[in-house]
């Protein structure tokens, strides 16, 4: 299959779903290597396509009708699930996690956690992994970009996180 045709089909498939599609799935479907798909995605991004990479695959970014804000939080490793569940249960999406690193500056990890299934999958992957959370580099202090549709959703999230001692306050 011609690369231009393949890339167009990738765009079409990403536009038809809000769920991530893995490079491996695209590779199998198009009969190419995973690395070819990674290259295709890089070319599409360079051409201006709003494609984001998540731990579960690629997806098209659909920012219309949605607002984003950053919140500062601090919590223990054991409170990770609680934090994610509070945000998603109130209608927020945890877009990413951001920490400040002494050498590298700002480190950003894409999350795109929208619902309980995403929370469960993230926690399962974390528990199986030998990697640590980015927040472990900063004594639990980190930022999240939160995506939401209604202004009151952000206030509800902040209030719920405050009540659980998770929203970061000058201490």
TrEMBL record:
Residues 71-167 form the 3H domain. InterPro entries: 3H_dom_sf, 3H_domain, HTH_11, NadR, WH-like_DNA-bd_sf, WH_DNA-bd_sf. Pfam families: 3H, HTH_11. Residues 6-59 form the Helix-turn-helix type domain. GO terms for molecular function: DNA binding. Keywords: DNA-binding. The keyword Iron-sulfur does not apply. It comes from the Bacteria. The keyword DNA-binding applies. This is DNA-binding protein.
């Amino acid at each position: 299959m011609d690369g231009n045709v393949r890339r167009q089909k990738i765009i079409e498939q990403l536009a038809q779903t809000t769920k991530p599609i893995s490079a491996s799935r695209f590779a199998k479907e198009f009969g190419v290597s995973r690395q070819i798909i990674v290259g295709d995605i890089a070319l599409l991004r360079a051409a201006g396509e709003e494609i984001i990479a998540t731990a579960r695959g690629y997806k098209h970014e659909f920012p219309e009708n949605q607002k984003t804000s950053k919140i500062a939080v601090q919590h223990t490793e054991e409170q990770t699930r609680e934090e994610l569940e509070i945000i998603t249960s109130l209608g927020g999406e945890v877009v990413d996690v951001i920490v400040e690193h002494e050498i590298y500056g700002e480190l950003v990890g894409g999350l795109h956690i929208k619902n309980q299934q995403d929370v469960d999958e993230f926690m399962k992957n974390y528990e199986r992994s030998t990697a640590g959370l980015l927040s472990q580099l900063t004594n639990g202090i980190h930022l999240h970009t939160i995506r939401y549709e209604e202004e009151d959703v952000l206030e509800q999230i902040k209030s719920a996180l405050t009540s659980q001692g998770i929203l970061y306050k000058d201490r």
